[in-house]
Specification:
The protein is of the alpha/beta class. Helices cover 47% and strands 16% of the residues. Helix 2 packs antiparallel against helix 13. The relative contact order is 0.16.
């Protein structure tokens, strides 16, 4: 399917690409590097984009390098200042402040990426990439969350429809949970784990569904140490306390779902490509269950592309700008949707009737309409506070209210330190 799609795109768009890309002065042969972390579907998609781009720009060669997620930020931070890293780099939107402060990326040229065009054509969340009137990065795709469910396990349990509310989700999770003779869980009704996507689900979905706000509007002040925040935390902790989930089951939540050992799993649209390649797994997806009073909420995020400070003025810089133009174009977004499952970052591409009604993409696209994007100061450190909060309750036996307050205080310290600078 991927090969067929690649050939179709190349055949139909070479002329358009040539018109957009033009050519470097004197047709000088130029090589640039593109870096991203390793995620199989994302690598596959970028291979298609690079192939298309090189076909339209025979004077430019793009070399892609990818690293395991755990090593990616460190390698990037070391390589770029040494002049050995990428010309165009992929980074999580929540890392933007760190990359700017470290001098790893430079503003996008305004003549090619005018702010008014970006703000008119991309989803509003992309405005988080602007600093002092300049955009530093742009995404190919955006993400939201949804509830994946195992259709075979649902059928075996006599469950005809996925849940639409949190209460229904808990009832179904109980019906899907299985244990062995010793009482050990062998199949969870729903996955859990703050190291995956649950810290986003807790912040931007559960807290809001229980009537609270995770932060002030500018995301500089923590506000989830509240009655609503505690209700949200108790609901989340109840997944394990009620025996329908287990933190660390099969190491990673997504691994348990892919192995057919979990009935439900909350994850991002980027998981679609990986699930499509999992033989024998029959799955469906639905919008996140609504809260106690019917409130819907979601979390949206994205990875962006940026031109590094290693791309100096000259042929490499010009080639990097051309490559950025293509990988953030409508055509590139359509390919990314097909291969990875992540949603187009341009509204005109994502919000089509076909996409919104698609049984797989639709729940994620509809979720964008009521999603919030957390503006992180330090994404990894803020995520760790959520991990520690749950561990203090589940492992140390701390009272949930105390654990919540400790997390809020620690996260506020992270924000205060960042914004003080």
């Amino acid at each position: 399917m991927l090969k067929t799609y690649r050939n179709t795109i190349m055949a139909s768009s070479a002329a358009a690409l040539m018109s957009m890309a033009g050519g470097l002065a004197n047709a000088e042969q130029v090589e640039i590097e593109y870096w991203q972390y390793f995620f199989e579907a994302r690598v596959d998609a970028m291979e298609v984009l690079i192939e298309n781009f090189e076909a339209a720009n025979p004077d430019i060669t793009v070399t892609m390098t990818h690293f395991p997620y755990a090593d990616y930020r460190t390698r990037t931070a070391v390589a770029i200042p040494a002049g050995e890293g990428p010309d165009v780099v992929q980074l999580f939107y929540g890392w933007l402040n760190d990359y700017i402060e470290a001098g790893l990326i430079q503003p996008l040229p305004e003549e090619t990426f005018p702010a008014e065009t970006i703000e008119a054509e991309f989803f509003p969340m992309v405005s988080a990439m602007e600093r002092d009137g300049q955009y530093y990065a742009l995404p190919t795709a955006v993400r939201s969350l949804a509830l994946f469910y195992n259709e075979r396990l649902f059928e075996r349990a006599g469950i005809e429809e996925p849940p639409t509310t949190l209460d229904e989700m808990m009832e179904i999770a109980e019906a899907l949970t299985e244990r062995d003779g010793a009482g050990n869980i062998t199949q969870v009704g729903i996955t859990s784990g703050m190291t995956a996507q649950d810290h986003h689900w807790f912040r931007e979905v559960l807290i809001r569904q229980f009537g609270g706000e995770p932060y002030t509007e500018d995301y500089q002040t923590v506000t989830y140490d509240s009655e609503a925040g505690l209700e949200a935390l108790n609901f989340y902790l109840g997944l394990e306390e009620n025996g329908v989930s287990q933190t660390g089951f099969m190491d990673e939540p997504q691994a348990a779902f892919r192995a057919g050992r979990a009935g439900m799993h909350i994850d991002g649209s980027f998981r679609i490509g990986a699930l499509n390649s999992t033989g024998g797994l029959q799955w469906g997806v639905t919008e996140l269950p609504a809260g106690p009073d019917g409130t819907s909420s979601n979390y949206s995020s994205y990875w962006v592309n940026a031109i590094t400070t290693g791309a100096q003025e000259g042929p490499e810089y010009e080639a990097s700008v051309k490559f950025m133009e293509y990988i953030t174009s409508p055509e590139a977004m359509e390919i990314w949707l097909e291969v990875v499952g992540e949603l187009p970052a341009r509204q005109e591409v994502g919000l089509t009737e076909d996409n919104a009604n698609d049984p797989v993409f639709g729940p994620f696209i509809r979720g964008l309409e009521y999603a919030n994007t957390t503006l992180f100061a330090n994404e990894s450190a803020q995520r760790q506070e959520m991990v520690d909060m749950v561990a203090r309750v589940q492992i140390e036996g701390m009272d949930p209210a105390e654990a919540l307050s400790m997390a809020a205080e620690a996260e506020q310290a992270i924000l205060d330190e960042y914004y003080a600078d």
